# Entry
Amino acid sequence: MNLLLILALLAPPLPPITPEAQAIATCESGDTKTLGSANYTAVNVNVDGTIDTGAWQFNSYWVWSSTNRWAIIPLANEVYDMSSTEFLRRYPTAADAPPDVQYQMFIQLWDNGRGWRHWASSRPCWEQWLVVRKGRAVWK
# Structure
C-alpha cells in the first residue's frame, strides 16, 4: 500500500454537507461545474493583500482573522469550547482547519440562506444551483 493511500484511509471522513454548501464551495474553490468539487486546502491571494482560504474561501481580514474576530469568537466558544486565541493557534487559516471546522464556519455565516451575501462575488456561478428568494438563497 502506498503512503498516499494510507493517509487517505486514516483521514477523517468529510462531514455530510448541504447541497447549498456544496454549491458555494464548488464555485469558490472547486472546478465551478462539478457539484462537490471543493478544495479544502485552497489558498488565493487577493489584490488587496488579503488571503482567501479553504473550501469556502474565508477571507483573512473579514472572517478568519486574528484582529477582526467577529466570526471566530462564536465558533470557537460555542461550537468548539475554546478561546478564539486557541482556535487560531490550531487553525491559523481555514486551509489549516479540517473540513468539519470549515463547514461549521460556513453554516454560521450562511445563516439558513440569509448569509449568501458573503459569497456574492461568486453568485453568477452558484446560481446554476441556487436562487435568491425573499432574501434567502435556496436550492432551485
Notes: The first helix runs from residue 3 to 10. Residues 17-139 form a domain with the Lysozyme fold (CATH 1.10.530). The longest strand covers residues 130-133. The mean pLDDT is 91.
